[in-house]
């Protein structure tokens, strides 16, 4: 096994970065394991290879748990489900986005912070349809095939966003409720530069709920946090970062502008100047991003 490809988050938990987003595999028994999130479209082969190296060939996960259903967390699902005949679980409030019923709020490229934000108008927000594969999680916070874990409903980034918590060693898989890099910056996410931050600004429509969710996770006092974007964070760095984020959420997390910042006066259109800038910047960076993705 080429261990450098994977990060050991904590005993029995491994993560893999796929371009700019993370997936996680959790051992739940001698040979049993669970997949958390499914990365980008086209990454199924990498995910299956990781599973084979960690858990052996022909050993599918007992279940797939989704923190939420944005395109970069469900991209490989359809391909994986052709091989793995397993159930997929998400929060009840997330299931309309996973059964083809409802689209996510459109990404907002006006929030600032870097190229990931500027390019977000290209990111898909249409729902996928998992059909009979998708099942709502139990309302009591338990997780299927994960007896040591609970989930915490952490809305804001999406309505049915969840985070996973293992109380015995206080390991948190936060999803995108908060992240450990500056998600709006292409340089930060591609280089995995560590910085505890709020949820990705360009794809978060409800900042009131997002703030409450970060506070809820801070109150768990996690010792280790693995997030949807960025490297693993632990110890005092994590504790101090979460305290700072909770205490200064408005300044650190909420964008100074954007269509979801003030729900009473949403931006209804982008200026021609801004659209022109988007086109120029897109032309300049698309080649570089595509080249980076091909490396993976």
Give structural notes.
The structure is a single chain. With 296 residues, the protein is α/β, with parallel strands linked by helices. The protein has a single domain, classed as 4-Layer Sandwich (Metallo-beta-lactamase, Chain A). 29% of the residues lie in helices and 17% in strands. It contains 9 helices and 12 strands. It has helices at residues 44-55, 71-74, 77-83, 115-118, 186-191, 207-218, 235-247, 249-252, 272-295; strands at 7-10, 13-18, 21-27, 33-36, 63-65, 88-90, 134-136, 149-153, 162-166, 171-175, 224-227, 233-234. The strands form 2 sheets. Strands 1-2-3-4-5-6-7 form a 7-stranded mixed β-sheet, with helices on one face. Strands 8-9-10-11-12 form a 5-stranded mixed β-sheet. A hairpin with an 8-residue loop joins strand 8 (149-153) and strand 9. Residues 264-275 have low confidence and may be disordered.
* Structural class label: alpha/beta
Spatially, the strands of the biggest sheet line up as 1-2-3-4-5-6-7
* Radius of gyration, in angstroms, nearest whole number: 18 Å
At CATH level 3, the topology is Metallo-beta-lactamase, Chain A
Question: Characteristics of this structure?
Answer:
17% strand, 12 strands, Metallo-beta-lactamase, Chain A, alpha/beta, 7-stranded mixed β-sheet, globular, 5-stranded mixed β-sheet, 296 residues
Topology summary:
Elements (H helix, E strand, L loop, with lengths): L6 E4 L2 E6 L2 E7 L5 E4 L7 H12 L7 E3 L5 H4 L2 H7 L4 E3 L24 H4 L15 E3 L12 E5 L8 E5 L4 E5 L10 H6 L15 H12 L5 E4 L5 E2 H13 L1 H4 L19 H24 L1
Parallel strand pairs: 4-5, 5-6, 6-7, 10-11
Antiparallel strand pairs: 1-2, 2-3, 3-4, 8-9, 9-10, 11-12
Helix pairs in contact: 6-7
